[in-house]
Design a protein that fits this description.
Layout (H helix, E strand, L loop, with lengths): L14 E5 H16 L7 H19 L4 E5 L12 E7 L3 H14 L5 E7 L5 H8 L7 E5 L6 H10 L5 E5 L3 E2 L4 H9 L5 E8 L22 H11 L4 E3 L7 E4 L1 H7 L12 H11 L3 E12 L6 H18 L3 H11 L3 H17 L4 E7 L3 H14 L5 E7 L5 E6 L2 E6 L4 H11 L3 E4 L7 H10 L5 E4 L25 H11 L12 H12 L4 E4 L2 H10 L5 E3 L17 E11 L5 H14 L4 E8 L2 H5 L4 E3 L8 H6 L3 E5 L10 H8 L3 E5 L2 H10 L3 E3 L5 H12 L19 H11 L13
Parallel strand pairs: 3-4, 3-6, 4-5, 8-11, 12-13, 12-16, 16-17, 17-18, 18-19, 20-21, 20-23, 21-22, 23-24, 24-25
Antiparallel strand pairs: 1-2, 6-10, 7-11, 8-10, 9-11, 13-14, 14-15
Helix pairs in contact: 1-2, 12-14, 13-25, 15-17, 19-24
Length: 749
């Protein structure tokens, strides 16, 4: 229904009108088509659709006798309007002017209209600036008599657009060449698409380099150049998303007419686009993002002060209307479903950095942190400035692979099945060195492919633990005892009974499969390094021919005291996170026996244990709980003692907690197993007691030291004896240096 000579439909039309019987008949025809969709719909989908149609037919039967609904409208054939770019304006004269200029520079002024609505801006210059554009072709200025807020202003504009698609654009944005052409193209790649949102520097889940890394500027590349790369390389990067983002969203005409405008109960803004997209999705429209367009966004210039108040209130409305919305957003963020839209941009930036002379070290690790993470930091610090730029590849606890770099700033994620895409991104960086610190947590398919890939690069395999030879990592068997690397049949029974480390994903069921997988990397690495001779000996029990370089860890720069700490021998320090492999059960046994035999003796745990409650029960153990490095000096200051007790049940390859204790002047008491015993013997500072050990023997050692019957260190030894050797540091730097080093340099003597 139209007035004569008008193209505007009346009463929200076009409409389809009919009697109840006609609507029910239409439902029946649709229900019959469900039976024919055997190859298209799953049994569950067919069942759900049948039930929904039956319920709808029941609703119609008991409703009004006449039914009407808007239909999908086709724009008049004579219309030349392709897009209308709607820009609501309130604050920010400079950014608004920059936004409008970018729009006019990059739209097609024959087919793309611009509608600017001044929402009664309080800034006196705003109206003058907008008036400068009033003579631009196919541009219209509207002005609200009073401030209506974003939602009502947007609705006023949408009602003024007779046909064509709409791009709703914040006035604090900047568009680049080709943006509108590409948004329109993406929108019309599928009839189901209702909204399209581009990437941005600052737009929550649509942000690049990542939703968690929003930046005004990238140090390596301007956003305009990145937008050009996106347009060239990301034309197929279309991702279904739970919602569009109102900073820049294209709304197709069909979706606008079927869904209606924005709900004005959202007040001045925030959440209205989420509600619109939820309603559109209920009508079968897809909300998508495209990686082929980047729009710069300052964000919240107009309503910055109100956002804190508006956002929680309006998001609560969304949650009430659509209980599935927030879980869907959470799942989207957790799975990082925008990841594929960022890969081409990451690749281009890495390639540009490499072309400009950057040399990368690829660090391979996992999510577990601990001593490995500390070692990586120390090696990087020790090798500066020759270690180049760092790319960190880690496997996450959810199985995803993550590639992170501070310079150029990027955060790329890959599912386990997307390893080929990962290697393509890595190829752009062409790392000068690959440093493999952890392979625990990676699946077998990745390990095999990585082992082949790494052959083309200079590489270092760093032994931080015993995962290479023991799927349980520590060589503590299923009975809880140190196994000493037994025969393969015993290993297989241990795996069958106790399983492998909880982080392991490679699926090897027998020890030979595990060793074969680890061997593929170890033997393809240019160099293999162990931080202690003891650790190297265990690895060589499995691979006697493997040449392992023994180079001590470059502990963080610490001021080592010239003399031991003074203190009472009635309080013993136990430092770190004390779990089963660190001897928590032994500590409990020692504490209980001490309570009986040496009631004056106390133990101070700076850290936490897996059996805090049991350890506190005897009354002679204090537990501080987990601590940070900044808290440690204060906690150490509360200690009265001078002895630090270590009770590990496996051959630790280094022990950073041991280094920490010595740095504070404590005299270490360590069992005769692993690198700690090796380090104490080398320096002469501390005591090595037999392994395996009994509680009574440890307590006897402590009493002998307290009574002067045994000296806790050799003559002339002190904490300074633990200072790292310049030779080890030089060898480490030679292994890990990448700056000004030819990629073909393959070994270090």
């Amino acid at each position: 229904m139209r007035f004569p000579g008008s193209q505007k439909e009346l009463f929200g039309g076009p409409i389809i009108a009919g009697r109840r019987s006609g609507v029910v008949a239409a439902v029946h025809r649709l229900a019959q088509s469900v039976h024919r969709a055997v190859g298209t719909l799953s049994p569950a989908e067919r069942s759900f659709l049948q039930r929904a149609l039956a319920d709808y037919a029941g609703t119609v039967r008991h409703g009004d006798d006449t039914y009407r609904t808007p239909r999908f409208a086709q724009p008049p054939q004579s219309s030349i309007r392709r897009l209308t770019i709607v820009i609501p304006v309130y604050r920010g004269v400079e950014v608004t002017e920059a936004c409008i200029r970018s729009v006019l520079s990059h739209r097609n002024d024959e087919t793309d209209f611009v509608l600017i609505v001044n929402d009664a801006s309080p800034e006196a210059e705003m109206a003058k600036v907008l008036a400068r554009f009033s003579h631009a072709k196919n541009l219209q200025l509207l002005a609200n008599k009073s401030n209506l807020g974003f939602v009502k202003t947007a609705n006023r504009a949408l009602k003024a657009v007779p046909d064509g698609d709409v791009v709703l654009l914040n006035s604090d944005t900047e568009v680049f060449a080709g943006a509108f052409d590409e948004l329109y193209r993406v929108a019309h790649t599928s009839p189901e698409i209702g909204t399209v949102t581009p990437l941005s520097n600052n737009a929550t889940i649509f942000s690049y380099p990542h939703a968690t890394l929003r930046r005004s500027d990238l140090s390596d590349m301007p956003w305009r150049r990145l937008a050009q790369i996106a347009a060239q390389r990301n034309t197929d990067a279309i991702v279904d998303v739970p919602t569009a983002h109102g900073f820049c969203m294209l709304i197709k005409r069909e979706a606008l007419e079927r869904t209606g405008g924005f709900d004005e109960s959202f007040g001045r803004g925030y959440g209205e686009e989420n509600d619109f997209c939820a309603r559109a999705a209920d009508l079968g429209f897809r909300n998508v993002a495209t990686g082929s367009v980047i729009v710069y966004h300052h964000e919240s210039v107009s309503f910055a002060a109100e956002k804190v108040e508006l956002l929680p209130k309006n998001l609560a409305m969304i949650a009430k209307r659509y209980p599935e919305y927030h879980p869907a957003i959470t799942a989207f963020e957790r799975e990082d479903r925008m990841r594929s839209a960022r890969w081409a941009l990451d690749t281009a930036r890495l390639a540009q950095a490499r072309k400009a002379g950057a040399r990368f070290t690829l660090i391979v690790t996992n999510w577990l942190g601990g001593g490995t993470a500390e070692s990586i930091r120390d090696i990087a610090g020790a090798c500066e400035p020759d270690n180049g730029l760092q790319l960190v590849l880690s496997c996450r606890s959810d199985g995803f692979l993550q590639l992170y770099s501070e310079e150029p700033l990027l955060l790329a994620r890959f599912s386990p099945a997307e390893r080929r895409q990962l290697f393509r991104v890595l190829a752009a960086a062409a790392p000068a060195l690959v440093a493999v610190h952890q392979i625990l947590g990676y699946d077998a398919a990745f390990i095999r492919e990585f082992a082949e890939w790494v052959q083309d690069f200079r590489s270092v395999f760093y032994v931080h633990d015993y995962f290479a030879i023991c799927p349980r990592v520590t060589m503590i068997d299923s009975s809880g005892s140190f196994c000493g690397k037994p025969s393969p049949d015993v290993c297989d029974r241990c795996i069958a009974i106790g399983g492998v480390h909880e982080a392991s994903r490679h699926g090897a069921a027998v020890i030979e499969e595990h060793h074969e997988l680890m061997e593929s990397i170890l033997w393809n690495a240019t160099n293999a390094v162990a931080p202690s001779a003891d650790a190297a000996r265990y690895i060589n029990r499995v691979w006697p021919q493997l040449e392992l370089k023994v180079i001590a860890h470059p502990d963080s720069e610490r001021q080592l005291p010239a003399s031991p700490r003074a203190g009472s021998d009635d309080e013993i320090l136990v430092l770190g996170a004390i779990g089963p492999h660190k001897g928590s059960a032994k500590l409990l046994e020692i504490a209980r026996l001490a309570r009986l035999k040496y009631p004056q003796l106390n133990f101070r745990v700076i850290g936490h244990t897996d059996i805090d409650r049991e350890l506190l029960a005897p009354g002679n153990v204090t537990i501080t709980g987990a601590y940070t490095h900044t808290q440690l000096p204060g906690l150490i200051a509360q200690c009265r003692g001078r002895l630090a007790l270590f009770l590990h049940l496996w051959p630790e390859t280094w022990s950073y907690t041991l280094s920490e204790a010595v740095a504070y002047g404590f005299v270490p008491l360590v069992p005769d197993i692993g690198a700690p015993a090796e380090r104490v013997r080398q320096t002469g500072f501390g005591v090595v007691f037999p392994f395996p050990f009994e509680a009574n023997d440890v307590l006897g050692l402590i009493r002998d030291i307290a009574e002067g019957k045994r000296q806790p260190f050799s003559d002339g030894a002190s904490p300074e004896s633990w200072r790292r050797s310049p030779e080890d540091l030089a060898r480490l730097r030679a292994l890990f240096a990448v700056a000004a080093r030819a990629p073909s340099d393959a070994s270090v003597a």
